[in-house]
Amino acid sequence: MKRVVAVRIVRVCSAVIGLLACGVSGAAWAGAPDAVSSIEVDASVGGTPFRHSWEQAFGSDRADMALTESYLRNADRTREATGFRYVRFHGIFDDTMAIMAPDGAGRMHYNFRKVDAVYDGLLAHHIRPLVELSFMPSAIGSDVLRRDGGLEPLVKWKADDPAKPITDYSGGTLWYRANVTPPAHMADWNALIRAFVEHLEQRYGAEEVRQWPFEVWNEPDQATWVGQPRMESYFALYDNTARTIKAVDPALRVGGPATGAIHWVGDFVEHVTREHVPVDFVSTHIYANDPPDLLRLPKSPDNTGNTVCDATRTARRVIDRSGHRDLPLYITEFGADWDIHNGSADRPWIAPWIAQTVHDCDGLAPIMSYWTFSDDFEEQGVIANELPGAYGLLTTHGIAKPAFNAFALLHRLGERRLPAGSGGDDVLATRRKDGAIAVALWNGDREQGRERHLAFKGVGSVKGATVVVIDRSHGTPAALFEAMGRPVSPTRQQADALIAAARLPAPQPAICAQANRCDIRLPPESLALLLVPGSPQ
Predict the structure, then answer these.
(1) For a FRET experiment, which of 21, 193, 352, 377 has its CA 20 to 30 Å from that of 516?
(2) Opening angle at CA 330, ends 329 and 331, nearest 5
(3) To which H or E segment does residue 149 belong?
């Protein structure tokens, strides 16, 4: 979600872990010699668990978008490529969901028909919600004008005029004017949460809903929460929500604080511990270009320079120091860039950035939800261009960006991580269940190519090894899109051609001149996956 805090933010067109986000000419590296290095992959050992935490969940815009054809089509494409299990979005309680209204007798009437349509659709596509409980239905919010349907109380312009209502386009956050006020009366919010959770269990069954994490609100440290004092008022909302959910079903999972830039993590854990408030996970967000004065990360010898992973490691340590080592940490939003206008997902540098983040964040959080899988996204208004579009891995027409192909390649990694020797900071070596050795290698340099000599210990032969490489010319629609004149809204014929141009390249035979060695050439800003066949374990 776009950062909207009141701090000085410098628009980033600069390095993210040394990977320059600004566009560069492909000719820049043509004459530059490759940097050559050797890596030994030890396949003689069992390795360590390598959980694919980076592809367990993906973010998306808001609940309404889940009812669109392009959203569901892109959800299917992403699930096929990554096997992701959960999707997180804002606004299941937004006014456009028509979830509640006064019934005329002083009581609230709940209407869950659109909620059902959203969740029915996701489950039919084999995706579960990571339920973000937001935003505030205007019928129970503390904004009086919104609660009264956008009308001010009756007024008279002159003493002898009849009383008239004055239409007021009252404030809200994001393009769709989300109501981010606290409830006028906490009892009304609690009643909504109880009715909502009871309805979900009645419709989908308790065993199913117990697999849905419930996260209270979104970034209450920023402009999506206007309660005052900000932190204390959010804690009151969390306390009431968590206790109400557990009163319905103690087996349901609930957590927070869902803050940006790992804010309040320590305060939150201290609060729920002191007040004996139920909590099953801690959640927060982090983007690679969150500015240092917002993050305030402590120096540590374990820091890699990867902001996302250094911040995640810091949050994990804060939780551990509180005595809650068993409390999971969910990064429910992460990405290279929070600024929607930078178009990071369609830049070639994003592929090695994603790979480096997977490498550096390994073992820090069981769920890391990339923001977002689809350009069906309207936080700042309807997207004006097909590319770069928004944060999505796929455009609204389903055109894959380099970020999508990076996730698709990394999905092919195995479940056991193998040692990759010294100098393996840009190598991920794994063993798959089918016995194959899958190795991801990347080059974030914008000018110089790299050549990697991979020697395999404990592998009798590398015969039949294949490699897939994505770079500035492969796994991206950029060249064809430019040749088309950058159409704002491609025709169906243009979209089909762009989809074909953006496909992940087919595996090619790897250069393996020796029985246990393969040589991989990595162009600037590239990601490769080497697959060495093996026997099932």
Answers:
(1) 352
(2) 120
(3) none
Tell me the C-alpha distance between 52 and 267, whole Å.
29
Residues 6+ positions from 59 with CB-CB distance below 8 Å: 87, 88, 89, 332, 333, 369, 370, 371, 372, 373
Q: Which two tokens stand for residue 177?
A: 């004017």
Going by C-beta distance under 8 Å and a sequence separation of 6 or more, which residues neighbour residue 23? Answer: 347
Q: Distance between CA atoms of 289 and 125, rounded to whole angstroms?
A: 33
- DSSP character string of 368-420: EEES-SBS---TTSS---SSS-SS-SB-TT-PBPHHHHHHHHHTTS-SEEE--
CA end-to-end span of the chain = 42
Q: What pTM, to 2 d.p., does this model score? A: 0.90
Q: Residue 188: helix, strand or coil by DSSP?
A: helix
C-alpha span between 413 and 80 (Å, rounded): 15
Question: Can you list the alpha helix ranges (DSSP code H) found in 249-387?
Answer: 265-274, 292-295, 307-321, 350-360
Six token digits for residue 504: 């992940």
State pLDDT tens for residues 318-371: 999 998 999 999 999 999 998 888 888 888 999 999 999 999 999 999 999 999
Q: What is the CATH number of domain 38-47+419-532?
A: 2.60.40.1500
Could you read off the pLDDT of 391-450 as tens digits, one per residue? 999 999 999 999 999 999 999 999 999 999 776 789 999 999 999 999 999 999 999 999
The tokens for 60 are 């998306």
How many C-beta neighbours within 10 Å does residue 154 have? 10
| Interstrand relation of 281-287 and 329-335 (parallel, antiparallel or unpaired) | parallel
- Dihedral angle over CA of 114, 120, 123, 125, nearest 10: -90
Structure tokens at 282: 């801690």
* Cα–Cα distance, 82 to 76 (Å, whole number): 10
Cβ–Cβ under 8 Å, residues 304 and 312: no
Q: Could you tell me which residues are beta bridge partners of residue 456?
A: 41
To which CATH superfamily is domain 51-412 assigned?
Answer: Glycosidases (3.20.20.80)
How far apart (Å, rounded) are the C-alpha atoms in residues 220 and 316?
A: 20
Backbone phi and psi for residue 444, each to the nearest 5 degrees, phi listed first: -90, 0
- 38-47+419-532 against 51-412: fold identical: no
CA separation for the pair 426, 424 (Å, rounded): 5
Per-domain boundaries in the chain: 38-47+419-532, 51-412
The DSSP 8-state label assigned to residue 366 in this structure reads: S
